[in-house]
Amino acid sequence: MEPTNQIRSREISQIPQIEYCLYSRKSSEDDERQAMSIDSQIKEMNDLAIRDGVFIKEIRRESHSAKMSGQRPVFNQLLNDIRVGMFTGILTWAPDRLSRNAGDLGTLVDLMDQGKLQQIKTFSQSFSNNPNEKFLLMILCSQAKLENDQKGLNVKRGIRAKCEMGWRPGPPPIGYFNRSFAGVKDIIVDPERGHIMTKMFKRVGESRDSGRDIYRWLDSIGFTTRSGKKVTLSMIYQMLKNPFYYGEFEYPIKSGTWYQGKHPPLVTKQLFDKVQTQLITCPKSPWGEKATTFKGLFKCGTCKGNMLGEDRFRKRKWSEPRRHIYYHCTRKLNSCPEPYIDEDKLIKQILRYINFMNIAHPNHLKLTEVLQSSVLTYQSIREEVSYEQDISPNSRPLDPVSFARYILYNGTISEKRDLVIALGKQMYIKNKFIGSSPEEIQELSKDI
Question: Are residues 209 and 300 in the same domain?
Answer without folding.
Answer: no
